[in-house]
Amino acid sequence: MWLMDEPAWNFEQEPHDPTDETGVNLRAYLDRMPDEKMQQYSVAWTDEQVVEWDGNFRDDGALMLICSERDVEVAEYRNALEECIRYRERIRVRA
Q1: What is the pLDDT of residues 2-61, one digit of tens each?
Q2: In the predicted structure, residue 68 carries a pLDDT above the cut 50
Q3: Cβ atoms of 67 and 21 closer than 8 Å
Q4: Which pLDDT score, from 0 to 100, does residue 54 have?
Q5: Rounded to whole angstroms, how far apart are CA atoms 5 and 20?
Q6: What are phi and psi of 63, to 5 degrees?
């Protein structure tokens, strides 16, 4: 039996503006991103650099998320990622 590791983070459940199923899936996706990788991100990167860095975007420019109602483009991804980075920084301070 295959068991999925639970992420060390809980950004998915962190209070946030109302969103749809895709927004929740995006937050869960970011919860599972290794912290070391997330800390490499730079707001100065171009959208193309972000897509390459993540490595999970389709050729049409949308993030590959399973069980999602709509596409997540790089602008939405970056907003959620930067919010997640702030969340992790805040949680790290408490630990």
Answers
A1: 344 556 788 888 888 888 999 999 999 999 999 999 999 999 999 999 999 999 999 999
A2: yes
A3: yes
A4: 97
A5: 24
A6: -70, 140
Position 12: which residue type?
A: E
Instruction: Count the neighbouring beta carbons within 10 Å of the beta carbon of residue 66.
Output: 6
Residue carrying structure tokens 């991804």: 77
Contact (CB, 8 A) for 50 and 74: yes
Q: How far is CA 85 from CA 2, 58, 59, 67, 81, in A?
A: 29, 23, 26, 24, 6
Q: Longest Cα pair distance anywhere in the chain, in angstroms?
A: 42
Q: What's the per-residue H, E or C state across the chain?
A: CCCCCCCCCCHHHCCCCCCCHHHHHHHHHHHCCCHHHHCCCCCCCCHHHHHHHHCCECCCCCECCCCCCCCCCHHHHHHHHHHHHHHHHHHHHHC
User: What is the tens place of the pLDDT at every residue in 75-85?
Assistant: 999 999 999 99
